[in-house]
Specification:
The protein is an alpha+beta fold. It has helices spanning about 5-30, 55-65, 110-145, and strands at about 45-50, 75-80, 90, 105. The protein contains 3 helices and 4 strands. The chain is elongated.
Length: about 150
C-alpha cells in the first residue's frame, strides 16, 4: 500500500466521522422541536457508512498469493436516514402543539444516546488523525534515510 493510498483512506474516515458529528449535533439541537416544516416533530437522523471496497475472503487470498496490490479505498457515507422509532408522548396540556388529551409528540431523540454517539464519532475521528500522523511520520523517516 502506498503512502498516498493510506492518506486517502484516512481522509475518507475523517470526512465520514465529521459528517456523523454534524448529524448528531443536529439531532441534539432539535431534541425539543415539536413542529418542523413537515408538520410533525423532528425525527432523529443517523448516518449510514459503507466500505468503498469490500473484498471477500477469496479475493484477499488471491491478492496475497499473487502479490497483487489491493486498492483499499476507505469508507463512504451512503446516506442519512431517519430513525423510524416512535415519538415520545409527553403530557403538557398548555403546549401549543398538544392534542385534545393534552399530549405532545416529542422528537425521538435521546440526549444520552446522542452524547454516546458523539463520543464514539470523536474517537473515530481521533483514530483517523493518529493514523494519518503515523503515516506522515513514516514518510518523513523514509526521506531521512536517503540523506
Amino acid at each position: 500500500m502506498s503512502i498516498f493510498n493510506a492518506i486517502n483512506i484516512n481522509a475518507t474516515g475523517l470526512t465520514a466521522e465529521r459528517l456523523r458529528m454534524d448529524v448528531i449535533s443536529k439531532n441534539i439541537a432539535n431534541a425539543n422541536t415539536t413542529r418542523t416544516e413537515n408538520g410533525g416533530p423532528y425525527r432523529r437522523q443517523v448516518t449510514v457508512f459503507k466500505s468503498k471496497d469490500q473484498p471477500n475472503f477469496s479475493q484477499v487470498l488471491k491478492n496475497a498469493t499473487n502479490k497483487n496490490k489491493s486498492k483499499l479505498k476507505g469508507v463512504e457515507v451512503i446516506g442519512i436516514k431517519n430513525d423510524q422509532s416512535p415519538f415520545k408522548k409527553v403530557y403538557e396540556p398548555g403546549h401549543p402543539d398538544a392534542n385534545e388529551e393534552g399530549y405532545v409528540l416529542m422528537p425521538n431523540v435521546e440526549i444520552a444516546t446522542e452524547m454516546a454517539n458523539m463520543i464514539s464519532a470523536s474517537r473515530g475521528y481521533e483514530a483517523n488523525v493518529t493514523a494519518l500522523n503515523a503515516t506522515k511520520n513514516m514518510a518523513l523517516k523514509a526521506l531521512e534515510i536517503g540523506r
